[in-house]
Amino acid sequence: MNLKKIAGEAPREPGVYLIRDSENRIIYVGKARILRNRLASYFSGEKDIKTQVLLRNAASIETIIVTDEYEALLLENTLIKQHSPKYNINLKDGKTYPVIRLTADSYPRVFRTRHIIEDGSSYFGPFPNVGAMDDMLDVIDRVFPLRKCKTLKKRKHPCMYYHIGRCSAPCCEKLNTGNYALQVDRVARLLSGDTATLISELSSEMQEAATALRFERAAQLRNAIKIIEGLNSTSAVVDFDPNGRDYIAWAAEGVFAVYSVFSMREGKLTGRELYRTKSASGESESLITFIAGYYNGDRLPPGQIYLQSFGNQTTINCQGADNAEQTFDIVSLGKWFREQFSLEPQILVPDDKHHKTVMTMARQNAEEELRQRLRERGAGPALDELKRCLNLKNRPERIEGFDIAQLDGKHPVASLVSFAGGMPDKKNYRHLKLRSVIGVVDDFAAMREAVKRRYTRLVRENRELPDLILIDGGIGQVNAAKGVLDDLGLDCDIAGLAKREEEIWFPNAKEPLVLARSSEALRLLQFVRDETHRFATSLNQKLRSANLKLLTLESVEGIGAKRAAKLLKHFQNIETIAAAEAEDIAQVCSCGTSAARAVRAAAGLALTERKNRAHLINSRRNNTAKTGKAVPFGGYTADLAADALEGGMAAESEEKYELDTST
Question: How many angstroms separate the CA atoms of 430 and 656, rounded?
């Protein structure tokens, strides 16, 4: 097994990785903010002795995707305690993360602990970040004055905590049981993450305190509200629910599917299993088959089974290959469980934030495993299907795609992307600045220019022609490109993919070809089309951005095109110019200090205007989303205007490709 290749293809999400030896034993568990980067680091640069020994014994690498670093930390802790990996032992102290305990007394107290006692107390956490936990306890201490003494004894006089507002003194009966219970309920809501109503209540109390001129109390409540709004004590991989649960998610592509099962036992995520399947049946039928095969005499079902797609208490709704709804009967599934195991687990849908988070992680892992399976399989079957469905002369090993990007005739560009064997061949990507359509909007003429320049050059240089030319557009764009090929005497297969209905158009066709959405051939065409659009838009945005910056600088008296270009070359962007010292600007463009200050002011004004326009455009976009009606903005719809503005704000792309200026 090529471990370096596995590391290079690992997901870019946060998660935990497990390294196993030749006997499939887990020998190391690690966590990472970006799994691919962390695993790749094992195979680059010099290694310390520990890493060298680890890699010598490594036979396979497995990853588990989670939602963030916090979840990765908790899951790593759980798996290390569960498996005691050989190369983790000296790195961990065996402690558990602390939790917050709310006791079950008549007058409960709240404190942190590392020990769970089954006495009816409520526990919240765990908290890998002890500082964050202490902040939460400090808020509780200041805002909800629960008792501090470990043992409640009646007293005649309250202690110091009462006098400084940190205890309600139930020992002296200064507070009745009902009022104390209200404070306990608020603490429980805070610790369980149910903060919306709590914040509302505290905000009302803050207003009342301010009205009564109790400003110190109002400020205390204000600070507490701010901290509460930033707190998040829930975890997807560790909780305190003792019920056994399985979360089953899946991802499918054509006949291929991957099922992911996350198992929670005694409040901890104890396992994640992935199963690859191949089936021509519908999604619901495949799901029943998987469930019936997964649970057996060696693996009994838990009390609760959560599924990612669920309609009501009697049917599960799924989408079949052609988006047709399919269902299966939970009653029959329950009967099967009773006959096989003499028990019937609950079949549920995630109905709250915690369960939905676990299910999301399960689905992410299924999707990543499916992507890995499709990578291993390659694009060969999709290319075969493409040749058959499009009736091509040859298997399309080389595909070239075209798209046009412009805004009201400004900065028209064409993109050319190249695919080899079904995968992007980025060294053969090209940008073309179009000359014949400057100042006009004519997609057909733009497409004719792009195709003519590309294939005139290939013919002149006697280079290999593509097996398929894909146009981002409908029949008009396809016919325009076909006319150019005919003039050049070229007999290349050509087709267009129209976005709205994903229709495939051929030259002079009266009707389009429509493939099933699950078709691998269609997905490959969509991949090529989306790359052409992304690539064309990236250069168009750069050109608009550069033009915007130059016009901003040239608006200053004494700063012409050459000085503006020199400033941009030195400072890179408007933001840096707005923050630069006037003396530095004057030195770069050889101008006076007053002109330099004017340049800096113009840059600052441009940034402010851009920010204001962005706010206005986003407001109008939100209004469009609510009403369903496009709102005109300076001659464009809000979406187009936002696209133009984002182009002016876009950072330079990390990708560098050849700019084709040939005629």
Answer: 10
